[in-house]
Amino acid sequence: MQTPKFFLKIKSSIENFLHNEELKRKLYTIIFEADTKAGKRFDVLLMVFILLSVLVVVVESLEVVANRFKLVFQVFEYVFTGFFTIEYLVRIYCSPKPKKYIFSFFGIVDLISTLPMYLGFLFQGARYFIIFRTFRLIRVFRVFKLFTFISEGHLLLKSLYESSRKIIVFFLFVIILVVSIGTLMYMIEGTTPNTQFTDIPTSIYWAIVTMTTVGYGDITPVTTIGRALSAFVMLLGYTIIAVPTGIVSAEMVKGYKKQAQKKCVHCGKSGHEADASFCKYCGESLNDL
Amino acid sequence: MQTPKFFLKIKSSIENFLHNEELKRKLYTIIFEADTKAGKRFDVLLMVFILLSVLVVVVESLEVVANRFKLVFQVFEYVFTGFFTIEYLVRIYCSPKPKKYIFSFFGIVDLISTLPMYLGFLFQGARYFIIFRTFRLIRVFRVFKLFTFISEGHLLLKSLYESSRKIIVFFLFVIILVVSIGTLMYMIEGTTPNTQFTDIPTSIYWAIVTMTTVGYGDITPVTTIGRALSAFVMLLGYTIIAVPTGIVSAEMVKGYKKQAQKKCVHCGKSGHEADASFCKYCGESLNDL
Amino acid sequence: MQTPKFFLKIKSSIENFLHNEELKRKLYTIIFEADTKAGKRFDVLLMVFILLSVLVVVVESLEVVANRFKLVFQVFEYVFTGFFTIEYLVRIYCSPKPKKYIFSFFGIVDLISTLPMYLGFLFQGARYFIIFRTFRLIRVFRVFKLFTFISEGHLLLKSLYESSRKIIVFFLFVIILVVSIGTLMYMIEGTTPNTQFTDIPTSIYWAIVTMTTVGYGDITPVTTIGRALSAFVMLLGYTIIAVPTGIVSAEMVKGYKKQAQKKCVHCGKSGHEADASFCKYCGESLNDL
Amino acid sequence: MQTPKFFLKIKSSIENFLHNEELKRKLYTIIFEADTKAGKRFDVLLMVFILLSVLVVVVESLEVVANRFKLVFQVFEYVFTGFFTIEYLVRIYCSPKPKKYIFSFFGIVDLISTLPMYLGFLFQGARYFIIFRTFRLIRVFRVFKLFTFISEGHLLLKSLYESSRKIIVFFLFVIILVVSIGTLMYMIEGTTPNTQFTDIPTSIYWAIVTMTTVGYGDITPVTTIGRALSAFVMLLGYTIIAVPTGIVSAEMVKGYKKQAQKKCVHCGKSGHEADASFCKYCGESLNDL
User: Which of A57, A249, A252 sits opposite D200 (nearest CB)?
Assistant: First the structure.
């Protein structure tokens, strides 16, 4: 019979496809790398698609636009979702270790950014997951081969990580402060007629708005004592903003110094002054490579 | 007679209880320390109770909630106060030096945070002392054995303490400035019809709101000269915010350097460079312990 | 005749008074110095008078208070002016070089802060010069013998002075920026009906309010392009605030380092590391005095 | 015939004028340099004209003024444009390399700042290009021979340039953040009746206003969850402002150090400590010139 043969053919061709290492390698170079001409082109195209898909969501929310071009946006959304779905599947296909990709940061971001439309059939609002696509923009650094940019980013993140414990202590302090001040303010202003400090959560919200020097002005004290406390909170916030800044600055000054220090190829010890010519531990030249 | 015997028995059992050093030690390990399993459990329970008691006060202030569940909150408050009262008494009981505990920072915070309900019978508003309970959250660091966090906090506080004199000088300058600017603004804007600068304290409040870059917008200048002065105050505030930040940053850079310096075990002198292997004062190895 | 004799007596006693060096020295120790008990007492009294006189002006501006206690404030003002006038005259009298005092910073501040009431007879509003009295509070540092505070203040001022040229360049840049942005915004938003950007000065005022992150909200853009420019200005202001902060921080780090450096008594050269024991230029001990 | 001779005369006098190297040199010293008395006078005059022309545009926008003195402003504008046109032509004339001047930064600024009135005949609004004249104020530094100021400016710009890559990474992060937060906020607050979060661009605008701590208050959250997110955004913005500040501070500390380092005239190596007397690479004196 022909049918089994036909099915076998399909089966074998699928298997061939699934194990076509050369195709996989080719696709991998295009999709995951940016060294070849085709790879660069693909990455630029991807960037454009991501930016467009984000733009469409943003523009669609405008009332004037939404009513008129409803169909256009629907079509756009279908196109983008189709493209991103295929791209996601191809990425899994050509990845040497598919599982590693799926559970990597970019793997998860890629998945979430293709889901919105599918989820949109099930429940409303899900389509706003589209905004996860913005995270995909981080890939832009690779496209333009801005490796140094990535290293800059790493230095930034390292400085933040190194100072994270100090910043957590600082935040716990700030949170205890705003809860206390919010409650105090509720006691002071809460009894005034037509007060804007209607409850403690609102007062805590006010304390945060004031201490971070945002100052919307939607909730403002009207009593003299409330204003005095308010002024105190402002001056406090104005001063303690110096703390995280000081932490990060000091960490970066330290980071710069470390970055400048070379490593001796003879004894392996680092920590030399930026201008040293000889290793201070073993006396060998630092400029040997 | 039996009665005296009975009373004696009670008296002796109370005395036994008061001098039961083993029980005291056991309770001390549970309540004051966090090294044992029981101690950890107690601390976590305490954290939960503190957080809940603060949450109850915050939620209760919401009008929608307060009217419906008045009784529930009352019961919660009785439970929390009961728990904290017993905890406070047990802390005094099992403390080796009760007086030292009572007058310590945490002792006073513990007392104030149990009082609100009792004081609430006497005068209204006292129950907001409950917010002092948030300060008890500082204990959280001990629970999770985050000793390093405490040392980070110490470094922060030390940096702030070291720079406190400079910051006080800065604040005196800021206060003289806002009083002067407030008065000047009252002279400029105070005569405009329907002005928001109704008196000098209000104008000083405005000056603080503006200089700290909070900018509520509840009081804004309307005259051209008032706006010009206002713009000057903003630029001033925008610039002098650099001063406390600069102070704290410089102090922290200094603090980091000190922290990195080792102490020689041979001659006892500290102040070595972070990467030195030998003491620069006596020539002995810095790595001997 | 007796009259000439009587006049001569007066004349001589006035001359005696004017040249009574001992009295002068005594008064000088009390008024200008704060080392003796009497000197301290006088300085504290002066502080209280200055604070009270400022407080009176501030409180008087409150409408509720002003109408009721008009006479009380009048009396207060007479007393303060009398006291400060006498104090000013005595300062001139007992000063060894009166001219130097009169034209010194404090001399001018002392004069201006006694004038308000006298000028008040001539033209209204002059009485607000009273606020100059706040500057006299700077004397507080001397009262409490906070010499170190003054040195802290000097270090602060020196850091600001050293970085003043950079800050001036920064400000020129900011001013050119806000004028340009203000004009641009007037072009964009100025044609909208009921716009708040009524003219270019108002738009420049808005640009300053926005760039310094004050954000009153009395003038806000409503068009899409206006909001986009506005967002750009905010991000710009948010970033360039780093510049003066960076300048002052760097200057202070430098200042700290200099402060830590000792001076060699043998060769007179300074610039040693903070932990050096021997002069690196001449090899002599740095600890010799 | 006389006519050709007459034309030849004109032609030769024009050619003489165009190649009059002495006149060119004289004009160049006056217009481009500020070392001679005439040069200084010209520069001060130019500054006054620039400032006046900017002031006229600013003042003209005031409604009260514009209607009354329309003709006066017209005349002013003709005078300024005439002056700047002649100045521009003379600059081209006396410049040794006219093309280089025309396409230099100042050359372009000079051209744009003379064009507004001419373009004003063609289309409205063009006259606001006048504001480009403010950029010409940068010349002020040369007038007062503030060369050191220019070097300060260079150091500032260099610090900013060195840290520009880090700041770009930071900005990409901020932009992704505000787009995400804006969309999230639109989902949360957008369904509330009479909401101010009418569409996603508006919500992104709100996110920028909040994160930069500007806080106009024209758009504020009203739901509890919206306020909670809002508070989070504020605290985030309050903290991450530390990042650019830290970057610039660290860069400036580094810049200062480099500035302090001398260069050895013997071996050409730089990187000596600020207080070194001898080159640490070749041992020769650093003070030889």
Answer: A57
User: A201, B61: Cβ pair inside 8 Å?
Assistant: yes
Residue A42 lies in a domain: yes
Instruction: Name which of A218, A131, A233 is nearest A182 in CA terms.
Output: A233
Q: What is the pLDDT of residue A210?
A: 92
Residue with tokens 């009760």: B98
Residues A140, A250, single domain; the answer is no
Which ranges constitute the DSSP H helices of chain D? 2-18, 21-31, 37-60, 63-68, 70-94, 98-102, 105-112, 116-122, 133-136, 140-143, 147-162, 164-189, 200-211, 224-240, 242-260
| pLDDT tens per residue across span A134-190 | 777 766 655 554 445 556 666 667 777 777 777 777 787 788 888 888 888 888 888
Q: Which chains touch A (3 or more CB pairs under 8 A)?
A: B, C, D
3-state secondary structure of B285: strand
Choose the closest CB to A212 out of D213, D216, D249.
D213
Q: How far apart are CA B131 and CA B113, in angstroms?
A: 7
Taking residues D203-227, report their average pLDDT.
90
Q: At which residue do the structure tokens 């040794």 appear?
A: D96
Per the document, the length of chain D is: 289
Residues of chain B numbered 104-123 and touching chain A (CB < 8 Å): none
Mutation target to probe the A interface, by most A beta carbons within 10 A, among D169, D224, D269 is: D169
Domain that holds residue D27: 14-149
CATH number, domain with residue A110 = 1.20.120.350
- Rounded to a whole number of angstroms, the distance from the CA of D121 to the nearest CA of chain C is 17
Among D58, B184, D235, B209, residue whose Cα is nearest residue C217: B209
Cβ-Cβ pairs closer than 8 A, B with D, add up to 10
Residues of A in contact with B149 (CB under 8 A): 165, 168-169
Tell me the ipTM for this assembly.
0.75
CA distance A243 to chain C (A): 13
Q: Are residues B174 and B110 in the same domain?
A: no
Distances (CA, A) of B195 to A224, B186, B190, C62: 18, 10, 6, 14
C-beta atoms of D214 and C220 within 8 A: no
Return d(Cα B243, Cα B248) in angstroms, integer.
9
Contacts of A199 in chain B (CB under 8 A): 61-63
CA distance to partner chain D, nearest, from residue B75 (Å): 26
Question: Rounded distance, CA A202 to CA A178, Å?
Answer: 11
**pLDDT, tens digit, 9 for 90 and up, residues C145-180:** 444 555 666 666 777 777 777 777 778 778 888 888
Angle at D21 between CA D17 and CA D27, to 5 degrees: 85
Query: What CATH number does the domain containing B208 carry?
Result: 1.10.287.70
Record: contact B216-D213, CB cut-off 8 A: no
Do A128 and A232 fall within a single domain? no
- Contact between B176 and B170 under an 8 Å Cβ cutoff? The reply is no
Residue in A199, A253, A280 closest to B61 by CB: A199
> Which tens digit of pLDDT belongs to each residue from C176-210?
888 888 888 888 888 888 888 988 889 999 999 99
B211-220, C29-38, C82-91, D129-138: lowest mean pLDDT where? D129-138
Is A187 in Cβ contact with B125 (below 8 Å)?
A: yes
H helical segments located in chain A: 2-18, 21-31, 37-60, 63-68, 70-94, 98-102, 105-114, 116-122, 140-143, 147-162, 164-189, 200-211, 224-240, 242-260
Instruction: Find out whether B241 and D213 touch, Cβ atoms under 8 Å.
Output: no
Q: How many structural domains is chain A composed of?
A: 2
Scanning D194-223 for CB atoms below 8 A from A yields: 198-201, 204, 210, 213-217, 220
Phi, psi of C9 (to 5 degrees): -60, -50
| Distance (Å) of CA D289 to CA B37, D264, D267, D277, D286 | 73, 9, 13, 13, 8
| Domain match, A116 and A171 both | no
Q: What's the pTM?
A: 0.78
